[in-house]
Amino acid sequence: MNQNAATHGLFAKYLPEETRELVEAFEQKALIDILWENICLKYAAIVRAQQIMFVRGAEDVTKRHTLSGNGTDAYEYKEAYEKQAVFLQAQSRAMGTLNNMIKQYDEMCRQGLADEEQRLRIAKLKAEVSAMQDTEQESVVIVDDVPDKS
Question: Model-level pTM?
């Protein structure tokens, strides 16, 4: 985007000032740096999701108060296996996205678009993701003899 378009054109007419400032800041960044920031954000989101979606054990049931269609009290229950399944699916998708972004970044490094600091960043992150995936595989326990609560 050229500066004239930002000042007088479509961007100036329809985008809020804060958004225009962000666009202008992004224009000054190298693509590899933008990709690196996105990798860091995705990695942070994965780590944060592990804290939020942690299932304590087979008895970890969430009870949520809701209202039924006629306005009376109702409750929605989420069993541990349901919460764990949702977590694993979300984590798998996020890890897949992160791995694809890392591959793209690595390819940019190989094409000579990165300096030494950027190459070291990706090597460190690859090691951390690999360790996280190893831990994830070790922590999944399938239990098929959970007693019926009814």
Answer: 0.65
